[in-house]
Design brief:
The chain has 85 residues and is an all-alpha fold. The chain is 47% helix and 0% strand. The protein has a domain of 42 residues.
Length: 85
């Protein structure tokens, strides 16, 4: 299940080379990871079986919506006892 030292070094180098945060493409990164996962029974592992291909970005509310959210959370927070006097 674990990679030997040389395989781990090569895998990390491929991740550094193809990672989107470093200017690479996501499809190239996934292809590189799939080649290293091939020896371990495929890319799907027990930790990633429930995860799907969908990525969802959530934006914080801005403007009036954020102000209303702030007031609402402050009013519910005031019912708790203060920890620092």
């Amino acid at each position: 299940m674990s990679l030997d030292r040389e395989q781990r070094r090569l895998r990390r180098a491929a991740i550094r080379r193809h990672h989107p945060d470093a200017g690479g493409s996501a499809t190239d990164l996934l292809a590189a990871l799939a080649t290293f996962a091939g020896g371990r029974g495929g890319p799907a592992t027990s930790s990633s079986q429930g995860a799907g291909p969908e990525v969802r970005f959530v934006r914080r509310p801005t403007g009036l919506q954020r102000l209303l959210l702030l007031v609402r959370t402050r009013s519910t927070r005031s019912s708790r006892p203060r920890r620092v006097v």
